[in-house]
Amino acid sequence: MQHLFNRHLICPWCKKGEVLADGKAKVTVSVMCPKCKRFFQGDLDTLKTEKAVAQRRSGRAS
């Protein structure tokens, strides 16, 4: 099974790193740039990105 990663989120910090997604959805993801190692949030629906800071996980919601 071959995935077509046709959604590209470009890092707002360094403008070089990118994160790939294979579909469009109304969700926001928090990712770490593979180049500069900084964190950013990306909207998979509009492909807009914004700078963010790392957040500690608070555990699973029950």
SSE order: EEEEE
The proportion of residues forming helix, as a percent range, comes to under 10%
Number of H- or I-type helical stretches: 0
Sheet/helix structural class: mainly beta
Rg: 13 Å
Q: How is the main sheet built?
A: 3 strands, antiparallel
Weakly predicted, low-confidence segments = none
Q: Distance between termini?
A: 34 Å
Count of structural domains:
1
Oligomeric assembly = single chain
What best-fitting shape do the alpha-carbon axes yield? globular
Question: Residue-averaged pLDDT, rounded?
Answer: 89
Which percent band covers the strand fraction?
25-35%
Number-wise, the strands total: 5
Q: For the largest beta sheet, what order do the strands appear in spatially?
A: 3-4-5
Concise description?
This protein is mostly beta strands.
What are the SSEs and their pairings?
Elements: E1 7-10, E2 18-21, E3 28-32, E4 39-43, E5 49-51
Antiparallel strand pairs: 1-2, 3-4, 4-5
Q: What features would you describe in this structure?
A:
With 62 residues, the chain is mainly beta. The chain has one domain (7-51). Helices cover 0% and strands 34% of the residues. The protein has no helices and five strands. The strands form two sheets. A three-stranded antiparallel β-sheet has the order 3-4-5, with no helix packed on it. Strands 1-2 form a two-stranded antiparallel ribbon. A hairpin with a 5-residue loop joins strand 4 (39-43) and strand 5. The model has no long low-confidence stretch (mean pLDDT 89).
